[in-house]
Amino acid sequence: MFNYKITPLENGLENVQGFYCDAVNVGMRPDTEQGDVAFIRSEVPCNISAVFTSNTFQAAPIRHYQRYGKDFQTDFVLINAKNANAMTGEKGIEDIDTIISTLHQKLSVTNPVMSSTGVIGYRLPIDKICSAFDILDFSAKNSHKAARAIMTTDSFKKELAYCVELSDGSHFNIAAICKGAGMINPAMATMLCFIATDADIPKSDMDTLLHAGTEQSFNRISVDGDTSTNDTAMLLANGQSTAYNKEAFSAVLNQLMFELAMMILKDGEGANKLVAFEVKGAKNEEEARKASSALSNSLLVKTALFGEDPNWGRIASTIGASGVACDDTRLTIHYDDLLIYSDTFRELDKEREEQAYHIMKQEQFTVTCDLGMGEGAYTSYGCDLSYEYVKINAEYRT
């Protein structure tokens, strides 16, 4: 067992050696105190790994990224809010080329990439975005501004940073900014996540560990069951600390990504509750995943959570409709440690219903379903669906 120590740090991306970040407002967002164009820059070219949405209609920034080819390096990420540059066809990609061409005139950059979030179906306001290059301070370190600038319906910024001290006395830092509150059902992995590290991590490890971390975090959450056209998680590594250990890096990356995923759920456009849906005793892990994901996506389950209604019938019916092998005589359902359904206790008596009601008033709790069919297990994470969610999304463009 390799010894290492993980310590949380304040100020996000600012902690990572050789990285810079900032944001400005160019008029796409009416609140001039909040930026709408942000950047992350490394003083040396970085290895980059990314996972993207599985939505067939991937946005132009993703398609532009994919044209660079395998194992390219970059030193610059440009991010804009208010416009997703999705469903804009080849013109959307050409607009990115135009923006990057203008950037090259202002700053020496290597294979810059772009990421966008906002409304689907509109081309980027090129002149506004390019105007940012005249006012951005490319030597600034302002993680807070960058984290706020990439928000859409988010109610709070999401950023984390950690220092990892290795047993030989060396250390590396890793940090991230992230956005996401609605249109959240990552399938890779609307959500964006940008992770920067000065660890000297091999590119092959970056790909492996980012995909593994995504499966344990962003791919297990659902706010509303909708998968965006823009979902992106990027990992950039410039190696400037010269320190690295795979076991330690994997542990801190998993921790960082899971915490960010839980932040997204807590910010789920009016959400009041974060709920873990643990399915065990399934025929296999894939069946457990299907049942667990069905629970985290179910609108009826989500509205029951919002109403704090301990109606186990919605849990059971969702499992039964998920297509997995199940049997009502073997099924058990618990809210935290409270048994609310089994073959013996099919009717929720007044005492247990009152106990369940108190559990559901908590901000966080676990729904555990044992199918009694095998050894498969999987946990997804979801939130309730409130009146505020409907209001936010009904008025999204206004």
UniProtKB/TrEMBL annotation:
It catalyses: L-glutamate + acetyl-CoA = N-acetyl-L-glutamate + CoA + H(+); N(2)-acetyl-L-ornithine + L-glutamate = N-acetyl-L-glutamate + L-ornithine. Its main location: cytoplasm. Keywords: Acyltransferase, Amino-acid biosynthesis, Arginine biosynthesis, Autocatalytic cleavage, Cytoplasm, Multifunctional enzyme, Transferase. Pathway: Amino-acid biosynthesis; L-arginine biosynthesis; N(2)-acetyl-L-ornithine from L-glutamate: step 1/4; Amino-acid biosynthesis; L-arginine biosynthesis; L-ornithine and N-acetyl-L-glutamate from L-glutamate and N(2)-acetyl-L-ornithine (cyclic): step 1/1. One of its GO terms (molecular function) is L-glutamate N-acetyltransferase activity, acting on acetyl-L-ornithine as donor. It is found in: Cytoplasm. The record marks 189-190 as: Cleavage. Heterotetramer of two alpha and two beta chains. Belongs to the ArgJ family. This is Arginine biosynthesis bifunctional protein ArgJ. It comes from Sulfurovum lithotrophicum. The gene is argJ.
